[in-house]
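Example 4.3 (complexes with small molecules)
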Amino acid sequence: MAFELPSLPYALDALEPHIDARTMEIHHGKHHNGYTTKLNDAIEGTALEGSGIEAILSGLDMSNAAVRNNGGGYYNHCLFWEVMGPDQGEMSNELSEAINKAFGSFDGFKDAFSKAAATQFGSGWAWLCVHKDGSLDVCGTPNQDNPLMPNVGCGGTPILGLDVWEHAYYLNYQNRRPDYIEAFFNVVNWSEVSKRYASR
Ligand code: MN
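Answer. The structure with manganese (II) ion bound is encoded below.
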């Protein structure tokens, strides 16, 4: 069973004005679709065919550039669409307490995450990750790498991710990455992030 491009869980214009419909259309329909197709091409006929994406990434041979880039791109965007939404939901007490413990406060978390996103040189992602013991970490990773991969970033399981590739924001924000990062916090679906924290 090949990987499939998931449908967006909301309309293309649902995240406006923070993320515009045209960016969503190209980002999902072209970029994410491209990673999905190329991942399938890269694993076809290999031992990885039929494995789940988490297993592929956690056991990744980092020298396998095609699977690293396209498997990362496939997984990262699947997560990205789901942790955003027009309805921001509610953060669980459990996640709120873990954030306070790791970063002092929600604002402390927001600063750490925003800094990781703003200082990631070139293309990449910022992540909030949970470790097996429930503790949280923030990190940035280059290109389509993510912390599920061996010895990448802070380790753990990503429960929130922000794409800082220019294709994610350039149409609306041009080079103003900090404005895009600030706007992202208006479309985070905290119910979904809380669900992912709870199912670690
Ligand atoms: Mn992207």
